[in-house]
Amino acid sequence: MRKSAWQWMHTELESLKERAQFRYLVDSEPQGQGWLLRDGRRMLNLASNDYLGLQQRSGIADAWMGAAASRLIVGNNPVYRRFEEEFARFKGTESCLLFSSGYMANVGVIPSLMGRHDVVFSDRLNHASIVDGIVLSRAEHVRYRHRDLDHLETLLRKADTGSKKLIVTDSVFSMDGSIAPLRELVELKDRYGAMLMVDEAHSGGLYGEQGQGLVHELGLTERVEIQMGTFSKAYGGYGAYIAGDEVLKQYLVNKARSFIYTTALPPAVIESVRLNWLQARKEEWRRKELSRKAVWFREALRQRGFDTGESESHIVPLLLGSNERTVRFSEKLQQAGIAAVAIRPPTVPEGTARIRFTLMATHRDEDLQWAVEQIDRAGRELA
Ligand SMILES: Cc1ncc(COP(=O)(O)O)c(C=O)c1O
């Protein structure tokens, strides 16, 4: 990453150091009976929230021990650091910082980077957690039409040249299955001196030769300042990460309120996420199968006259428009034995209610074939 892009961050971190307000993470490992190992030294723990000592009761899964406070207090179990280092290597970034969930990452990161005098450019169909992050930041919130680069460029041109600018986008859009034009966004952000944040919630684990994500697959790792992803989708777990430069990590440790002021994920969650991640990495057949099934399913619906919008992924919307029709459609599918959710405003824009189908690598071809027939029948019955 161009170091000049982060000059303002270096300056702010230096200023925190001068005021003795700089925070950093120190490994802390519980040892029982109120003692812990902090940075390799045994210390009496007078900073825990495990008031009744229940976490350290032997017999309860040992892996659960260790949080019981923010990571900046005494909760920084080495499990986090080790996983962050491993995951950063996998992503090809200098560093990585874990958050308790994708929602927490987005509402923490955006306000820590952007403030009252800054501008955030956000795709109109970005996830709600991004929208909430922008609102919390108090920056000017500029929404551009979905994937519309001309519109975004017009808005970038109009923005005050003196303000800090951030473009933020989902990589695979959660309700549409469409894919952000990341290459073009990188060009635009460079041209207008903006930063780019990409939310890989629905592409992590699925794109890239080992599932590193779409940014990695397109060879853009060095050019995207902030990558966010969650472990709650393809990795079948819980928790989230921000991947990027080391200075970004240090900055977030000091500034992201949803990192600082909350208890960290239990180490057991990290351990289980790690196992799923290692498996996803090596089992390429899962990515291939998902991709093959998604192409087949989308095409099968399109051939039967359904509108699947701009989907290019394993998320396939069936656009129906009216809320009533969508609810009836989803009821019919449920009666037929298919669980698929009716998505209505405010989750999606007014007049674009839909059924959202999401595919899995482990779906059987014959089950998907059967599902398409049921969807077709429901469509004809409601015509
Ligand atoms: C694009 C996107 N970002 C962030 C999130 C939030 O992730 P999490 O469920 O880990 O809080 C979601 C989840 O629905 C999402 O779809």
UniProtKB/TrEMBL annotation:
GO MF term set: 8-amino-7-oxononanoate synthase activity; pyridoxal phosphate binding
Subunit structure of this chain's protein: Homodimer.
Top-level taxonomic group: Bacteria
EC number: 2.3.1.47
UniProt-listed PANTHER family: 8-AMINO-7-OXONONANOATE SYNTHASE, CLASS II AMINOTRANSFERASE/8-AMINO-7-OXONONANOATE SYNTHASE
Keyword presence, Transport: no
Signal peptide span: none
Domain Aminotransferase class I/classII large positions: 42-375
InterPro entries hit by this protein: Aminotrans_II_pyridoxalP_BS (IPR001917), Aminotransferase_I/II_large (IPR004839), AON_synthase_class-II (IPR050087), AONS_Archaea/Proteobacteria (IPR004723), PyrdxlP-dep_Trfase (IPR015424), PyrdxlP-dep_Trfase_major (IPR015421), PyrdxlP-dep_Trfase_small (IPR015422)
Name of the protein described by the UniProt record: 8-amino-7-ketopelargonate synthase
Purpose of the protein: Catalyzes the decarboxylative condensation of pimeloyl-[acyl-carrier protein] and L-alanine to produce 8-amino-7-oxononanoate (AON), [acyl-carrier protein], and carbon dioxide.
Organism, as annotated: Paenibacillus naphthalenovorans
Lineage of origin: Bacteria, Bacillati, Bacillota, Bacilli, Bacillales
Alphabetical GO biological process terms: biotin biosynthetic process
